[in-house]
Every structure is written in C-alpha cells, then in structure tokens.
Amino acid sequence: MNIYTKTGDKGKTGLIGGRVDKDDNRVEAYGTIDELNSFVGQAICQLEGEMFQDVKEELINIQHELFDCGSDLAFAKQGHPYKVNESMIEQLESRIDVYMNEAPPIERFILPGGTPAAATFHICRTIARRAERLVVTVQKEHPVNESVMRYLNRLSDYFFAAARMANARAGIKDVEYVRSAKVFRSNNKDETKDA
Fold first, then answer.
1. Which helix (H) or strand (E) holds 116?
2. So where does this one cross the membrane (predicted)?
3. Nearest Cα to Cα of residue 110 among 66, 149, 31, 163
4. SS3 label, residue 159
5. 110-154 pLDDT, tens per residue?
6. Is residue 154 assigned to a domain?
7. DSSP bridge partners of 75
8. How far is CA 128 from CA 19, 27, 40, in A?
9. Structure pTM?
10. What is the dihedral of CA 156, 160, 163, 168, to 10 degrees?
11. CATH number for the domain including 155?
C-alpha cells in the first residue's frame, strides 16, 4: 500500500464532498486537531504505572473523539449526521470535576510543567485553545457543528485539570505564577478572595 497519492502536489486536498486549498480554514482547523491528537498520544506514553491506567483509557477515547471533531469539520456540504454531541462534553465536565478535586486548591495561575505528562497536558491545553479559535474562524464562513467548538473549549479545561492531577498523583507541587492576582475562587468564600 502506498501512502503517497500525489493528489495534493498542487496545493489542494480533499474534504468530504469537494477539494479545497490546503490552507483553507477548515483544513487548518482539523489539521490542528490532528496535531493535538498526536500530543495526546505522547501524553499517554508518558503516563507510567497503574495509577494512571484509568487516564490512559480515557485519553484513548478522547483520541477517537478528536477524530470525530476532525470528521465533522471535513464536510464540504451540509446534510450529514454529525458525530460530536453533548454527551461527550458532559463526560469531559465530569472528569474535570474529578481531577480538580484530586489536586490541591490553587489561587493563582500556574506555570506549565511538573511531570513530563503534566507538561504535555499543558501543551495539549494550548493546542486545544488554538483549535477552538480556528473553529470560530471556520464558522464565520461555513456551517459548523457547534458541539465541536464546545467540546474543544471543555477539552482545554480538561487538559488543565489533567495536568494538575498528573502532578498531584506523582506528588509534585504545581508552581504558581508569582505575579498573578488571585484568580481562582474556592467553594468557601472566606478561604479565597479575588485580588
């Protein structure tokens, strides 16, 4: 099987239902999601030990969902069933809550880092944000499954929570950005107040 088709040699690529320039904003959006998926794969490889088995399985599911996001963005025409739905977003929200409860409370922004997996989760977080911005651009010109944008928004929050969880499970403390105001509120209003 040859993986090279030569059909893209003149700067065009295929969407489902048509061909576009390789710098089309839909291609840029789903290409960025593909980049994100690769870093999720790297994070999986960096999670060592049984204490992360649950996270690895979850991340593999997220990789499938990222392909679903790309698929929903790769349609050139309307009238097809979308793959990304609200239940995927709700699942992310559920896991965000679990992971934030595993990590100690924070008041300020934190510096990306800690374990290799946590650092990679922070890379995933920023790529998810970029993908979300690109989908916003796409929706100005083309019909878009709005659940994809919400999914990417929640996914960036998930990666932030996952980074904190990975450090907490490894016993490594997050480093707060020292010049940050207090931006995170505790559930107990007397415990943390915004600066």
1. helix 116-139
2. none
3. 163
4. helix
5. 999 999 999 999 999 999 999 999 999 999 988 899 999 999 999
6. yes
7. 16
8. 26, 15, 11
9. 0.86
10. -150
11. 1.20.1200.10
Element of type H or E holding 21: strand 18-21
* Contacts (Cβ under 8 Å, ≥6 apart) of 8: 22
Total domain count for the chain?
Answer: 1
The answer to whether 177 and 110 have CB atoms below 8 angstroms apart is: yes
- Render the burial of 54-78: b for 16+ CB within 10 Å, e for the rest: ebeebbeebbebbebbbbbbbbeee
The reply to whether 8 falls in a domain is no
Token readout for 97 is: 């809550």
Provide the residue type at 109 as one letter.
F
By three-state DSSP, how is residue 77 classified? coil
- Residue 20: phi and psi, rounded to 5, are -140, 170
C-alpha 20/C-alpha 26 separation (Å) is 9
Rg (alpha carbons) of the chain, rounded to whole number:
19
121 close to 163: Cβ distance less than 8 angstroms: yes
pLDDT in tens, 68-89: 999 998 875 666 789 999 999 9
Non-local (6+) Cβ contacts of 94 within 8 A are none
Q: Is residue 7 part of a domain?
A: no
3-state secondary structure at position 18: strand
- 122 lies in some domain: yes
